[in-house]
């Protein structure tokens, strides 16, 4: 009775409580880290709910518009992060979203690829490879860093330790960001990072937000709480543009988006409160583990898909 059809050409019904539960999980992750919830959403829609790649990305972007508003408001109330970083990245990011969205539309129109003699949609194969590469590298780096942090008996708290993007990149003009204890940060560098993050968001429906967290943590040296409170405005702008572009191409299911948004709006509030109470080193470790588990899930499901014809032949 609680199963319904999405009206997107999908042959099977989808459970409404399951989608709301997925939204709750994604919202908690997004609320805890400001960004990164989409790193779970798109792969789970692809592999658990068997949603077509373009619809999974487009609908995921659509629901993130709502959850991003909730996260942004919560972190502004907690006075975490500096939205000026988002504003300086925004121009390049919006251009990148358009590039990424066009590339995803191109992939969705291409023929299937044969993997071990089994046809697989090209868009799903490319997205899986991108998720495994990007999430894998990010999780390994964060696990190593978290291990070093736990060995240090003194917690850094919310102190910023300027990273190499601040100390090594000296391209003028510069901007001071005293709210997060950063000074003389390169404005062209912020714009270029925004371009790359936007392109990843447009292709993966998540990559921009997920990549922003490691950039803020290690590239700029922000604490986990300040990093979580910094990316929300940028994510809101990029996902809004991405959702509009995907909707114009017919790649957004409002039923799917609203079902997930019901859970994610609640989860974002819970996640932000959890972040306010946990130490930075614990937050970094949790984020790294979440990314690593996502990679394991994607790899196992992709491998099972490839090997399925071989098992059936036996």
Topology readout:
Elements: E1 3-4, E2 14-15, H1 16-33, H2 38-47, H3 53-78, H4 83-108, E3 113-115, E4 118-120, H5 122-151, H6 164-167, E5 174-177, E6 182-186, H7 187-204, H8 207-219, H9 224-228, H10 232-248, H11 254-277, H12 280-313
Antiparallel strand pairs: 1-2, 3-4, 5-6
Helix pairs in contact: 1-2, 1-11, 2-3, 2-12, 3-10, 3-11, 4-7, 4-10, 5-8, 5-12, 7-8
What does this structure look like?
This protein is mainly alpha-helical and about 325 residues long. The chain has 12 helices and 6 strands. About 70% of the residues lie in helices and about 5% in strands. The strands form 3 sheets. The protein has a two-stranded antiparallel ribbon. It has a two-stranded antiparallel ribbon with strand order 3-4. A two-stranded antiparallel ribbon has the order 5-6. Strand 5 and strand 6 form a beta hairpin. Helix 1 packs antiparallel against helix 2 and helix 3 packs parallel to helix 11. The chain is globular.
